[in-house]
Specification:
single chain, Aspartate Aminotransferase, domain 1, alpha/beta, 12 strands, 3-stranded antiparallel sheet
Length: 394
């Protein structure tokens, strides 16, 4: 896309984040001078092994886990697949029923669809107009043959944060395992796996200013989740393959920085979001805010601009160097309307006019002022040319 300006404003932190300088600096030696295989017994190998141990401690500390409960994977997606598919297979002697929600990330939904093809029964809980599940409904859906509840911690499109501790309690009372996809929650919401009582939890480095291609699955001690990748002895023989050394080191550092900064980060993002929303509300008519503003990720906003197409807004903003998304990054390449906005009851024509703005650590007030100005112009321009289709009832 050709840009009319040099200015770059990134407002898609839920899609991915830049690697922080401190994180990159920590990673670099492990590409070149300190490249040993962590499984090798000589010194340079042991150095790599120690670096992985340190990273495991850093990630464990951010979620309140023991380091031995953290298993590195290639992504949040892989962690989700592992938790859901391996639990289903492992527990199929007890039953073949799984409970999840209609608003999960595709890493979870498509794993469940795969299981359905394999003869499993999946219940997709509804959410209300604000994006929250109903705990009583969850209680009602648990059956004797239910083996797993998998409900995301925070949603990637509308930011809704589910009552994770309460869900864990319901699962525990019924002897059902509970997994949560905490990829979006990590670094934005305090997470303490012990206090919450979760059995498994997925995280990913690239959403918290770490590198892409590395994630982790927390597996509570005592939950003997089967091996996911067979091979060497890496990751306590549960997930074989020579470790992504640089990625894991970067994840560790990103987790450490995130833990030091969490409260300030969340407060800053929330105040920037409030500022942005107030300006948009004051200056652009006919909008709709999707999802509740309470119990929501601090940097997330999802807004429908009525009568126009989100894709068209996205392209006009992109021409001004502003990056936003329509729905989730994975579905934005297709024209399928967002399953999340659909689940909270946004009418289909309004789903097509929705934009997700996600604010992060490098966002400034000035960036948001610039965005409001360009957004306002884009919306006005598109509404002018769409007036025909609007009147024709689109
Ligand atoms: C980004 C994301 C994932 C996938 O993580 P990757 O590391 O990109 O595979 C899973 N779940 C949620 C909620 C996400 O936002």
């Amino acid at each position: 896309m050709t840009t009319e300006t040099e200015r770059q404003v990134y407002l898609d932190y839920s899609a991915t984040t830049p690697v922080k300088e401190e994180v990159l600096a920590e990673m670099l030696p492990y590409f070149t001078s300190s490249f040993g295989n962590p499984s090798s017994l000589y010194t340079v190998g042991q150095k790599s092994k120690n670096a992985i141990s340190r990273a495991r401690e850093q990630v464990a500390a951010l979620i309140g886990a023991e380091p031995t409960e953290v298993f590195f994977t290639s992504s949040g997606t892989e962690a989700d697949n592992w938790a859901v598919i391996e639990t289903a297979m492992w527990k199929r002697g007890k039953g073949r029923h799984i409970i999840t929600t209609a608003i999960e990330h595709h890493a979870l939904l498509h794993s469940c669809e795969y299981l359905e093809k394999e003869g499993f029964d999946v219940t997709y809980l509804h959410v209300d107009k604000d994006g929250f599940i109903d705990l009583d409904e969850l209680k009602k859906q648990v059956r004797d043959d239910t083996t797993l509840i998998s409900i995301m911690f925070a949603n990637n499109e509308i930011g809704s944060i589910q009552p994770v501790a309460e869900i864990a309690e319901i699962a525990k009372a019924r002897g059902v395992l509970f997994h949560t996809d905490a990829v979006q929650a990590l670094g934005n919401v305090p997470i303490d796996v012990k206090a919450l009582g979760v059995d498994m939890l997925s995280v990913s480095a690239h959403k918290i200013y770490g590198p892409k291609g590395v994630g982790a699955l927390y597996i509570r001690k005592g939950v003997n989740l089967p091996t996911h990748i067979h091979g060497g002895g890496q990751e306590s023989k549960k997930r074989a393959g020579t470790e992504n050394l640089t990625g894991i080191v970067g994840f560790g550092k990103a987790a450490e920085l995130s833990g030091q900064n969490l409260e300030h980060h969340a407060k800053t993002l929330l105040s920037l979001r409030t500022y942005f929303l107030e300006r948009v509300q004051a200056e652009i008519p006919d909008i709709r805010i999707n999802g509740s503003l309470e119990n929501r990720l601090p940097g997330n906003l999802n807004i429908t601009f009525k009568y126009i197409e989100g894709e068209a807004i996205l392209l006009l903003l992109d021409m001004n160097g502003i990056a936003v998304s329509t729905g989730s990054a994975c579905s934005s390449a297709s024209l399928t309307p967002s399953h999340v906005l659909d689940a909270i009851g946004v009418p289909v024509e309004e789903i097509h006019g929705s934009i997700r703005f996600t604010i992060g650590d490098f966002t400034t007030k000035d960036d948001l002022d610039y965005t409001v100005e360009k957004l306002k112009a884009a919306v006005e321009k598109l509404r002018k040319i769409s007036s025909v289709s609007k009147d024709s009832g689109f």
